[in-house]
Each structure stands twice: as C-alpha cells, then as structure tokens.
Amino acid sequence: MADKTPGTPRKKTIAAGPKPAAPRRSRKTEPSVLEKLQTVIVGSLEDDKAENIVTLDLAGKASFCDRMVIATGLADRQIAAMAEHLSEKLHKAGMKRVQVEGAGGADWVLLDAGDIVVHLFKPEARTMYALEKMWGSDLDEAV
C-alpha cells in the first residue's frame, strides 16, 4: 500500500527525520590488556613523582576511550619528562603509536594511548579544567 502523503520521496524521508544510528562496533581493548597498560602508566607517573594521580573508568560513558588518567606535575620540565618516559614505557609494553600533544612546554600535555587517555597538568590548569568533575562519579549522580 503506497503512502498517500503529498511530496517527493526525498521530502517524505526528510520529514520522517533521521534514522536511528546503527550501533557502532567497538574496537575496545580487552580488559586484561587495558589493566596492564593502566599499570604501566600509573607506575611510570609514580616513578616520575607525579602528584594526585587519578584514574577514571569511562567504559560506556565515552566513545573515545575506556580509561582516563589524570596527574599533576609542578614544572614544565617535569611534565615533559613524564610524557617522554611514559611514551617510551608504553612503546616497550607493545603500544605501536602514542600520540602526544602539548609536550613543547605547556600547562597541559595529553597522551593518547588508544583506549587510555593521559592528561598531565600543572596545578593551576588542572583546577581550571576540572576533568575529574566532568568525567567523574558526579556525572553518574547528575543523570
């Protein structure tokens, strides 16, 4: 039975609205591998005297990663060294490519290790961006 609504098929499709997106197939890392990488990351940060290391589980909350690690360094040089050491240790642990942004002396360095994203901040920048509040357990309570 044909639709009796006036208009072209294209107009009818537009009026009907977007189709629900098909569920995306996840390429997420297996939990055991994820735990191993997280251990390497936290251990490296502890070795480099990072302060206030926090790990957030974002599985099911974010599509870009499963874990987020946030740490504070007191000086540009310390943060750059933490990023360099972390990148080397992740490479040794089997990560083929670790993207590093802001390592040239910024208040915030980001390392993208696939399913784990690491943020290294100076104290003032960490307070200003407040990623723990944005992605932490408070998010679950607000929903």
Molecular structure report:
With 143 residues, the chain is of the alpha+beta class. 42% of the residues lie in helices and 19% in strands. It has a five-stranded mixed β-sheet with strand order 1-2-5-4-3.
- The third-level CATH topology of the domain at 31-128 is Beta Polymerase, domain 2
Radius of gyration: 21 Å
Strand arrangement in the largest pleated sheet? 1-2-5-4-3
CATH class of the domain at 31-128: Alpha Beta
Secondary-structure-based class equals: alpha+beta
User: Roughly what fraction of the amino acids lie in strands?
Assistant: 15-25%
- Please work out how many helical segments DSSP would assign: 6
SSE order in H/E notation? HHEEHEEEHHH
Given the C-alpha coordinates, what overall shape results?
elongated
| Mean pLDDT over all positions | 79
Give a short overview.
This protein is an alpha+beta fold.
What's the helix and strand layout?
Layout: H1 9-16, H2 31-47, E1 51-57, E2 67-72, H3 76-92, E3 99-101, E4 108-112, E5 116-121, H4 123-129, H5 131-135, H6 137-142
Parallel strand pairs: 2-5
Antiparallel strand pairs: 1-2, 3-4, 4-5
Helix pairs in contact: 2-3
Keywords:
5 strands, alpha+beta, 143 residues, Beta Polymerase, domain 2, 42% helix, five-stranded mixed β-sheet, 6 helices
